[in-house]
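Fill in residues.
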């Protein structure tokens, strides 16, 4: 399933473990991570969840080869939860969520930080929201959450440009809380997670509830807008050109698309 789960000191660490695919989310990994979050939410022995990646990537986002099959094969079998189920679980997760960005984060590997209560990032990691380079729309309420975290112009650049954001830029913009040397990343994230986990779970849940409750309606509305745009654009000329270019190992060329694309 590509997910490692470990418990220690009331902290559950979820490690994305598809290193050969840069921890990209296929349907199986979306389902496994969603189930792990639902289980952690319900488990009275878990106070905090840490999410990180194995290898040189945090997550390369949605598996584009599988996404290409999804867009072109009517018989493609989707998972139980999929991308939307994972975002549902993130939005509803009642306990502190700590992200430790160990390497490259693209797509959901970047937008997940909108749901993190604390985010740590390796000095060698980079983040990218590749939506315009894929001919699609934002996802995971990032059009609402990233401007809140980073400010409008920093978020606009990240969402519009599909360019890489380095660790220092992520720190200065407020997208992450602390930047660590690679070997210090997970120990540092765990140290802070264990501090939180030493507090009463009931209090942790109450604090998070009072912080996130005012945001839920806006998150839901942003997701509806994004999903409508995504549904319109996925499978369109720009998206098919981007996915075909990825499958063929070339750069996409959007200059020859019909007007308006």
């Amino acid at each position: 399933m590509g997910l490692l789960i470990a418990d220690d000191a009331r902290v559950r660490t979820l490690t994305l473990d598809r290193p050969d695919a840069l921890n990209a989310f296929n349907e199986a990994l979306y389902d496994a991570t969603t189930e792990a979050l639902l289980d952690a939410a319900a488990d009275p022995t878990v106070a905090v969840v840490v999410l990180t990646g194995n290898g040189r990537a945090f997550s390369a986002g949605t598996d584009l080869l599988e996404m290409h099959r999804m867009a072109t094969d009517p018989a493609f079998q989707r998972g139980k939860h999929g991308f939307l189920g994972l975002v549902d679980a993130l939005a509803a997760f009642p306990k502190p969520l700590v992200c430790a960005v160990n390497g490259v984060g693209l797509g959901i590997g970047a937008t997940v930080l909108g749901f993190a209560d604390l985010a740590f990032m390796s000095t060698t990691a980079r983040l990218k929201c590749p939506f315009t380079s894929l001919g699609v729309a934002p996802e995971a309420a990032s059009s609402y959450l990233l401007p809140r975290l980073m400010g409008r112009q920093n978020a606009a650049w990240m969402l519009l440009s599909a360019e890489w954001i380095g660790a220092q830029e992520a720190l200065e913009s407020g997208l992450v809380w602390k930047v660590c040397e690679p070997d210090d990343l997970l120990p540092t994230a765990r140290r802070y997670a264990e501090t939180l986990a030493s507090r009463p779970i009931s209090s942790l849940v109450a604090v998070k509830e009072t912080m996130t409750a005012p945001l839920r309606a806006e998150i839901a509305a942003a997701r509806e807008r994004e999903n409508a745009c995504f549904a319109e654009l996925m499978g369109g000329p720009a998206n098919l050109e981007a996915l075909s270019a990825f499958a063929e190992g070339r750069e996409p060329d959007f200059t020859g698309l019909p007007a308006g694309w």
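The CA atoms of residues 57 and 188 lie 18 Å apart.
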